[in-house]
Hints:
The protein is an alpha/beta fold. 25% of the residues lie in helices and 24% in strands. The chain has six helices and nine strands; from the N terminus they run βαβααββαβαβαβββ. The chain has a nine-stranded mixed sheet with strand order 5-4-3-2-6-1-7-9-8, sandwiched between helices. Bound molecules: NADP nicotinamide-adenine-dinucleotide phosphate. Residues 7-8, 15-16, 20, 22, 25, 46-50, 53-54, 83-86, 88, 132-133, 135, 153-158, 161, 186, 190 line the site of NADP nicotinamide-adenine-dinucleotide phosphate (NAP). NADP nicotinamide-adenine-dinucleotide phosphate is lined by residues 7-8, 15-16, 20, 22, 25, 46-50, 53-54, 83-86, 88, 132-133, 135, 153-158, 161, 186, 190.
Amino acid sequence: MHVVVNAATSVDGKLSTREREQVEISGSEDFDRVDRLRADSDAVMVGVGTVVADDPSLTVKDDRLREERRDRGDPPNPARVVADSQVRTPMDAAVLDDDAETYLLVSEAAPADFVDTMESAGATVLAAGQDRVDLSVAFARLAAERFDQLMVEGGGELIFSLFEEGLVDELSVFVGATVIGGRDAPTLADGEGFVGEFPELDLRSVERLDDGVVLSYDVRGAL
Ligand SMILES: NC(=O)c1ccc[n+]([C@@H]2O[C@H](COP(=O)([O-])OP(=O)(O)OC[C@H]3O[C@@H](n4cnc5c(N)ncnc54)[C@H](OP(=O)(O)O)[C@@H]3O)[C@@H](O)[C@H]2O)c1
């Protein structure tokens, strides 16, 4: 399964404010690029931190792109995937609506009654990992479900884990013309951070969109 991480950051690498409030970092040109990337993917993933902070729907917004998907025999929207070890996704979260399939990746420690509730809400629950989602195991299951391309839309905790596990193939970052600041504001890759060995990236392209740039990288050594 090909994994593409996409995010928008301020010049200082922040995804949002220290209060974890969404910031309009990009504009309409980047919005269209991201919508196209979603439409080209079989599934779109976020961590539960992003679900709780932003309540994204992760659906394709442009009617023509949804039509293109239908024309090639795909559902109008890609499936949605949430990494959520303990099932913290609220029942009224937009990712649980009827617009697309939803996969909840949970750990073995997820409370059984929460899992049942999510399944009755229509989500497919996949358990991998003892206390936290084992992303490598979970991704192997997603690949077996016919997903060839997975787009990851954040946030910083999830993106760090994906790099740590060597699961990222491509990274696209829109860097907007703003500074958010704040030592506690989420960044592109949070988690524990790397100390010795860092993921190496090959810069593939630099594109000017809106009042920012999109930096696209291939991850060196990715399969
Ligand atoms: N600018 C952008 O492009 C963009 C995009 C997305 C989000 N954001 C911002 O980013 C912030 C949210 O980011 P975040 O870092 O707090 O949350 P996140 O990365 O969306 O979600 C992190 C959570 O995912 C769960 N998780 C399950 N398995 C995991 C694993 N193996 N590795 C890592 N996490 C795992 C963990 O919760 P459990 O332990 O409970 O499972 C963890 O706390 C919000 O402020 C949002 O606005 C910005």
